[in-house]
Structures are given as structure tokens and as C-alpha cells.
Amino acid sequence: MSAVGTTTVTSSDPPKSADAPAARRYLPLAGAAVALATAIIVAGLTNEAFLTTANALAILRSAALTGIVALGATFITVAGRFFSLALGQTAVFGGVTFALLMSHGAPFALAVVATLIVTLILGAVQGALVSMGANPIVTTLGAGALLAGLAGLATGGKNVRIESTSVEWWGNARPLGVPTQTWAFLILIVVAWFVMSKTRFGRETVVTGANRATALSSGIAVWKVTTVVFVVASVAAGIVGIFGAAQFSQARISEFGGLDFDVVAAILIGGTAIQGGQGSPTRTALGAVFIAMLQNYMLLLGWSFGIRTTIMGAFILVVVVSFHLVRGRAGAK
Amino acid sequence: MRSRILHHDLILRIALAVLVFLFFALTTGGYASSGNIYAILESCALVGIVAAGLGVTMLAGELDLSVGSIAACAGIVAVQMSGSGVVVAVAAATIAGVAFGVVQGALIARLNISSLVFTLGTFIALRGVAYVLSHEQTVTMDLSNLAITTALRERFVIFSPFSLTMIALVVAVGYVLRYTRIGREIYAIGGARKESRAAGISPSKPLILAFALSAGLAALAGSLSSLRSGSATPSGHETLLVAAVTAALIGGISLYGGRGSMSGIFVGVLTLQFLLSGLTLHGAAFWAASLATGAVLLVFLVLDIANGSSPIGQSLRRFHIARRSSRIPRTQTTVSASTPVP
Amino acid sequence: MGSVDNGAAPPVLEMRSIKKSYGSVHALRGVDFNLRRGEVMALLGENGAGKSTLVKILAGLESADEGTILVDGEPTQLGSTRRSRSAGIAVAEQELSVIGPLSAAENIFLGGVPFKGAWTSARLAKEARKHLDAVGLEHIDPRTPVETLSVAERQLIEIGRLLARDAKILILDEPTAALSDSDIERVKSTVLRLAAAGHSIVYVTHRLGEVFEIADRITIFRSGRSNPPCNVSDVTLEKVIEKMIGRPLEDMFPRRAQSFRAAILDVAGITTRELPNPVSMQLHAGEIIGVAGQLGSGSGALVRAISGVDVVESGSIVIDGALLPPAHTLTDAIKSGIAYCSSDRKLDGIFADLTVSTNLMVPAIKSISPNGLVSRRRVRELTHAIAGQVALSPTRMPHKTGTLSGGNQQKVALGKWLGISPKVLLVQEPTRGVDIGARAEIYQHLRTLAEQGLAIVFASSDLEEVHGLADTIVTMFRGRLIRTVPATSISTHEVLRDITHPEEAQI
Fold this sequence. Notes:
Chain C: GO terms for molecular function: ATP binding. The structure holds three protein chains of three kinds. By secondary structure, chain A is mainly alpha-helical. Chain A has helices spanning about 15-45, 55-80, 85-105, 110-130, 135-155, 165-170, 180-200, 200-210, 210-215, 220-250, 260-270, 280-300, 305-325; strands spanning about 160, 250. Chain B has one domain (about 1-310): ABC transporter involved in vitamin B12 uptake, BtuC (Orthogonal Bundle), CATH 1.10.3470. Helices cover about 70% and strands about 0% of the residues of chain B. Chain B has a two-stranded antiparallel sheet with strand order 1-2. In chain B, helix 2 crosses helix 11, helix 4 (about 85-110) runs antiparallel to helix 10 (about 205-230) and helix 7 packs across helix 8. Chain C contains 17 helices and 21 strands. The model of chain C has no long low-confidence stretch (mean pLDDT about 85). Chains in contact: A-B, A-C, B-C. Chains A and B meet through helix 5 and helix 13 of A and helix 5, helix 11 and helix 13 of B.
């Protein structure tokens, strides 16, 4: 699969070379969309409750929160740094920060901005450590534990309530019938796609993941790219944390327990390679929808949490191994 | 491994452990009582056994993320089988763990896939299995089998069967690492994977052993822990991975592979539990353990980077040379390009 | 020398009419090779002559396409490392495979060497002692971690490992490439001692001086063919050199520059870890300098030092009047207009999975994205312009670079730098893995770029290439710059002598 969004030859060149690249560029995305559509059809045919509006909205909403974080986390994977396992705790910490600020009388906009700045700094610290050579998974494991502790410290173990109608609106409104989280998801899909394929930073991310040594020798500031991708993922988690707190008008430290794994699953199923160098936020978004659908479908079938989790884990294994075999390369040792 | 350099390193870590102990002994009442030391060693047992196995995968240059989930499954299986006696229950869970580890290690070796990614999948899948096995509830031992719990809590001064098992296992794994060919091979593939292959060492056997140990020991620890407490929950042992990795890092196991020893892990576990016990006695809340563990992990992670081969070393050299050169007034001399042959 | 038996018994190793091709590249075109018991046979030849292919076949890493191999007179198949080992063959490769954190004793016994019982350090030390003594490491404690030993000592441990495997045929590939004088003495005396003890040794090297000191016979490979072996006592250095070179000189080199422009790069007395002796060099716009030298000569190290990849510890570099900061980094160099291509494009020269278009734009990524947004128009203009300059067809743009031929890949690796309009281009092994036809093209493009004002320094172990393409030749041997001369005033013969045996060269 070629990287989505690479510039190609234009009409000044012989027509046959102009067609091929465009088609090839969109093929993976089209393929993913077709797979998703097929899954929807199959699911709908085999279970009546699946294709109702209420159900669809439920899927979209749960897809939205995972999806927003997954959009940000895609940058980490594309840059060749595997995954962050601190995003769930970052979301919790973001929600807690936001709730605490609101409950101390801060205006809404300020609370949001402050929370995002906090998550930005958290991401930058982790990114800096990784760019110095630390293992990203262990670093984020440690950071996640640290954040869980800090969240506990800040809240004293209790939920933090928010009394604010504007917050409640943000958490539960449905402009034009679509939940706010889903609007945010859709907007951020466009933003993420734009950043990845049209900006210098996005190209540098792809290139760093494709071959770090070549990127370094070509003059790319790999350490900067590494730091920023963690910032992006962290801020995305912060956004979701705010939404989570807004939805229930309280920040709970027990939330977002499985977020990291759903995010990893969404990225992998969306076809982003673990070694980095290719992948797209749009496909990750489709992956997130697919995961939400899968979870929803299994719920409708009455399958227990245990079975659903086992299947999710097994699914990740199968996808990882299949892609690994197809690509025929070592998993970036 | 047994050079003077490493012993020096180990002594530093022992000193750190002693320092932490003394700090709390002097500032917290009851810390140095035999009762508390017993409690500390008890808490060491679980993390210690798991860290021993996990440490072997780290030495081999890999990481087994699934240890927490394995421990949870093992605990559930052991409690469910407690009717057949402690030996059978523990043996069953452990054998299952070893078998799983062998398969995991074989797949990772054969596919030549990153263990981080692979064990992430098994981490999630096994957590689900734990819920399935326990029917989503906490399983408790039958009252008729409570004798097992009492037996496992038996106290010999400051030790218990659990902590004695840990010590025995750490010694045993340490023996294998130090005195067998396959132990050396683990260090070799961890510290120098490419050179090992070139030297004719196949990574398959050492990898299979490493993952069999990490899964088997996690299962052993999980089953003993649950039998000791009389119950097992499917969501249990979620913090075990972070604790074990932190203990290993404190003890000097490098994430880059090939460096560290079992004695180091033992010291690392002690240090961590000294700290956590001290915090608990000080009255810290439940989330303090998480905070402390996370913070300590990050600190030792940074130390590990500074030790290992990273771009930092070269940057430091450049910095020193640049500083040195800036003090010398520069004179432009154009030396003749050809040097006569001696 | 060793106790050579003169042909009475069958040779311990005999290879007849060995052919090996990799696709269209004929590495070995029917070579013969034999080795007698207890002798040291030197295997000589330029890079690409087929020496390493023969070594790989003996090690069992490759199988010959045609030909027979006889060990002790018995026909043997050597298709796998296991069979090679059971035939008693052991190879010490160019790249050391000693394992740093482990001790000397452990390194000797790891990797399939039989050792029964518990691996206590005491027992390992005892058993390792005799092997260490056999290779001249009597003073080394077997428990020492290998990473604390010098390169020479590691080399000897590698040989010790071969002995522990009870090999009767030892193949040493460039054993002294990275060693200093005193170290070389140790290796040489070890080799002689081993031969005297009955081991048969194949000594692959480019250091002709050593050959005359320790070898009994010499086999010379040239362009995939072998010369019949001759006794060392029957030949002179001159004759050996003559037999080594002389690849049909194809008409692939463009004419050299008539004159140069202003001096653009002034390297004054720089040293690095790999270049302990200060090296100086001057480069003019429009000039192509070729640095000739074999493995371990420092030719690559020189290029890497100027590029900033290796840390320059003393000396100065001035480019276009601007002094580079001390211990300058790669980024400093790029900013000053110095572009660098390493010898391994797959490692850090190209992005194999990304399109040609993307590859070409990376160094210039800032200039094609003026406000952070990548401008497709600029990318197109840039990549087309570069493609034109290196004769890459525009139809190649959307293809993944890894699917291109070696020559086209190299064009991408070199051409991408044109995006930043460099003043100096540094290249290591500019045509490695490139077939003849594409080579001529690359030479032409490099010359054209020079004519347009670029200054080029390239390091190569292919002396035909150095002599044919460069305006000025710098020869290096064992970390020392031997001389700098215009290419027109030196023959390839003399270049070869400089880089293999400079003591006899007349300057």
C-alpha cells in the first residue's frame, strides 16, 4: 500500500501514468470502506436489532471517543514508535483537570484550553523520553501509572462533579440529530487527514517511520517529529477526556479502562503498519467504527465481556500476524 | 556478567535498597517490626516471582506484556481447583502457563515478530479468558479448603511459603542463567542479536525458554497468590506488569537486552516494596502506589537510556569537543595536502 | 612457514570449475582453488573479483551452481553451514561476531561448540585457556568481557572460536583490516603457529605486504576467474599486482575537467576516532576527488568525518569561506551545503517503501512547504527537475523506490540532494550494486554536476572507478593519507600499490 497523499505526476505527463497513481493512492481507503460496508450488511442481515437508528447512533458515539484518540495515536504508529499505553490515563487526567477547573469557577473556554495545554505537556515529556531512546511502550506504561496516581491524588479518589449547563450541552447535545462527540470525530478526521497528507509535519512523520536512519541522514529533525507525535496523541486523549466528563457532568477516575487497547485495535485493523512509514488517519477512523460495530454486535448477541475481550485480543493477534506475514518483514526489532 | 564492573553496579543498587529501608525505618513507626518485614516479603513474593520470569525476557531483548493476564487466569484456575489440594491446583495452573509460554515463545521466534506487539494481543485476549473462566465474578475458595489458605500464610519468623518459594525460584532461575549454555545464549541474543546469529546461535531455543519462564512463573505466582488470599478476580493483577518492569529496571535489567542479573531483580523487588510499604504505613491512599511506581519506572528508564547506547553518548562527545575547541584560539593553517610516506 | 607437504597427499581442500551467478551477475566463472595441509594460502583479488563469493560457498552460506568440491579427496556437498562445519571448515568473517557483554571464554564456546556439564566460569576458563593460548592471548583472563578488549584481541578470540570447533580448514577474511602494526604482528604469528600445528589456512587479504611474510602460496582471482596458484618464493610484488588488475577497461568514464574554479572546501588536519593521523585536503568547485583505499584504510572514515556523521575531534573544515563548528553534526553540514551519501543506500540512503517522488523531496522538504503546507506544484517541479538531471524517467515517480533497479535506486539516493543545491557532495561507493550500463550513466551525471559547479568527493574500493572518474586522487592505507595527485599523473598500477603496499611505492 502506498502512503496516502503522496504527490504524484500531473496532467503534463503522459495520461497513463497520471491515472495509475490516483487509483493506487485511494485503493487502500476504498478497500477498507468496502470491507466495513460488507460487515455492516452481514451484521444487519444476521441480527435485527443491529440496523436501527438508535443502535447506529450508539455505535457512532462509542466509535467517536475511541476514534478521536485513535486519530492522534495513528501519528505515533506511523512515525514508527509503536503505541502509547498511556492514552486512557491521559484521558482520565484530562477529564479530571477539566472538572476540577470548572468546579473552581473557571470559565468553560479557559478550562478547555488549560486542560489541552496540560495534556500537551504530558505528551511532550513522553515524546522527549522516547526521542532520547526510551522504549515507547514501557515509557507510556510508566507514564500511565504515574497519571493514574496523579489523578487519584487530585481527586482524592472521588468523582468530581461539574455544575454547568454549557458543559452538559457539550456532553449530550445532538445538533442536527448527531451527537457532539460524533461531530468532533468527523471534524477531527478531516483535520488529521489534512495534517498527515498535506503538511510538512505529516510528511516528516511518514518518512521518519519509513526509515529512521534515512530520515536522519536527510536532515529531518527526527527527535522533533517523535516528540510532536506523542503530543498529538496526548491532546487527542485530552479532548476525549473533556467529552467524557461533559457527558456525565463528572470526571471519574475509573473511566477509559480499555481505551488503549481499542485504540491499538482500531489502528491495526485500519491497516496501519506497526513498523511505521505508512498508514492513514482516515483508515484508522474506519477501524474505530469497525471496532465499535464489532463490540456492539457481540453485545447484541448477548456475549459476555469476557468473550468480547478475548475475541478482541485474538483479533488483534490475527491481524498483526497476517500483516506481518504479508509484508514479510520483521516487526521492527 | 561476573566482572568487577557489574558487581560495582549491584553494590550501588543494594545500597539504594538499604537507604530506602533506613529512611522509612527511621521515619515511620512500626516499619522495621518483624510483622511489617513479613508483610513486605509477602508482597515481594508475587512481584518477585513474576519479575524473575519477565526479567529473563528482558535479558533476551524482548518483553512479555501478558504476565498480568496470565497471573489472573492462573489464580482463577487454581481457586477453582483448590478442592484437589494445593499441589494439584498450583501444578495445573503452572503447567498451563508454561505450555502457553512455550507456544508464545515459539511463535515469536518462528515468525520473527516483535514480542511487544505479539504479547499485546495475548495480553488482551487472556484478560478476556480470565473473565470467561470466572464467569465474570470473583471466585472464592470453598470454606472446606480454607486449610490451604492458612497453610500458605504460615509464618516462619519473617518468611512464609510464598516468599520462600520466591527466593528459591530466583536462585533457580539465576542458576540457569549463569551456569548453563542456554542461559548464556539468552544474554547473547539479548545483547547482540545480529552478532549471535552470525556466530551460529539460533535464537529459537533461548526465546522459547524465556517466554516459557515468564508465563510459567507468572502462572505460579498468580495461583499461589490467589490460594493464599482465598479468592481470585478476573480483573486482578492489572498493575503487576508495571510493578515487575519497574522492579527489573531498578535491579539493573536493561531494556536493551543482555544486561542484568537475578540478584539485581531480587534487590529491585525489595527496593520497590520497601518504598510501597513505607508509603502505605504513612497512610498514603490507594493511588499513591501507582504514582510512586510510575514515577520510579520513569526515573530508572532515563538511567537505563543514559547507560545504554543511544544518540546521547555521541551528542555528549560533540559537546565536550566543542567546548574544548572554543577555548583554544583558532589559527587558520592550510597544511600541505600530501604527506610523505614514512 | 608451515609444514607444507608438497603434493604427496591429496590437498585437504580442492575446488574445480566452480561457477556461481546471482541473476545476471557472474560472480565466479569457473574458478579452481586448492589448499594443502598445514599451508597458508593467500587469496587475493580486487573487490568484486569473487573472493567473498568463494568464501560464502565454503562456509555453506551459498551453493555453487556448478563445479566440484573435494575435502581430503572425497567429493563433498557444502550447501549448508552444518555440512560445512562437519567438513571441518570454519570461517572468520570480516565483520566480527564476538558478543560484547560476554566473556572471552563464553564467546569461544557459544554457537555450537561442544561443552559438557555446568557452565561455571571456572570450568569455562579452564577449557578456554588452551584455545586462548593457541591464538596468542596468553595474557587474557578468560573471564574478561570481550567488549573491554581491543579489536585485535577480539579478532583473535574469533579465531579461537574456530579452533574450539576443531576446524582443520580455517578461512580468515581480512583478519587485519582494522588493526594497528603491533596487533598485526600478533595475528600473523598466530597464523603461522596454527599452520605449523597442522591447520590449513586460507588467508583472504588485500595487504600484500603481509602476504609475502606469512603465506606459502598465492591464488589470485580476477573478474570471477582464478589464476593457478604460485609459490610466494616464485613471484614478486609487481607480478602479483599485474595479475590482480586489468579488468577490460570499458569506455565508460567521461573526460576529466580541464580546469577548476575557486577552492570551496578546505579540510585541515582533521582527526577522528578512526583517523588518528591528521588528514588534510582541498577541493575546488568543479573538481572530483576520488579517495582510494581498501577496507580499514580510512577512506570511508574521511568522507564520514567531513559529513559530520563521525565526530571530528581536532582540525578544521572550511566550506565556501565559512568555518564549520567544532565537532559539527550532520545537520550543521547539510545547512552549510554539504550533502552525504553513505555506502549502504538500503540502510540510510533511500526510503524503499515510499515513492520515488517522496524520496526526492525529503532533503528539500522545507523549501517545498513554505508555510508548513506541502505544495504539490513545488514538489512536482523539484522532482521533475532532479529526475531530468539524473536521467530518471518521470514515469518512475509513483513507484516504490525499492522496486527500482540498483542503478535507479542509486540515482535517487544521490539525486535527492540536488533539491538543496549543495556545494559539496560526498559519496561512499557511488556505484555499489549498480550494473555496468547504469554505472556509465552515473559517472556522466556526476561529471555534469561537477561542470555545473558542484564539488564532489567520493570514496571507493574500486580503483578503476577512482582512476577513471576522479580529477584528483587521494590514496589511503591504514588510516594514513599516502598522497594526493592529479589522476593524469598516476597509473592504476601505482594506485593499487599505494593502497596495498605503500612502503615500496616511489613518490
